[in-house]
UniProtKB/TrEMBL annotation:
It comes from the Bacteria. It comes from Metapseudomonas resinovorans NBRC 106553. Pfam families: DUF2007. This is DUF2007 domain-containing protein. Gene3D superfamilies: UreE, C-terminal domain.
């Protein structure tokens, strides 16, 4: 298995796990149970998304495309330009 991405938080990790699963890529979250130790453990680098070696390149491209996505014009509220409503 290869660590391909370090999510900023547990919410981002779960979103990316779901997105990868919907694309047929099995991914695992490393470090999710360590978040309770923040304060005694370093805050960054605890979380990591792991995939099988043969899926690493495809998963990295999917995550890069997901992170680069922009809202379609007209889908964001006037009070929060650039924010996608979910």
């Amino acid at each position: 298995m290869r660590r391909i991405y370090e999510p900023h938080d547990l919410i981002e990790a779960e979103l990316l796990l779901g997105m990868l699963a919907s694309e047929g890529v099995e991914a695992h979250l490393a470090g999710g149970h360590l978040l309770g130790g923040v304060g005694e453990l370093p805050m960054f680098g605890l979380l990591g998304l792991l995939v099988e070696d043969e899926d690493a390149e495809r998963a990295s491209k999917l995550i890069a495309a997901y992170n680069a996505a922009q809202p379609l014009p007209g889908e964001e509220p006037d009070s929060y330009p650039g924010t996608l409503l979910c």
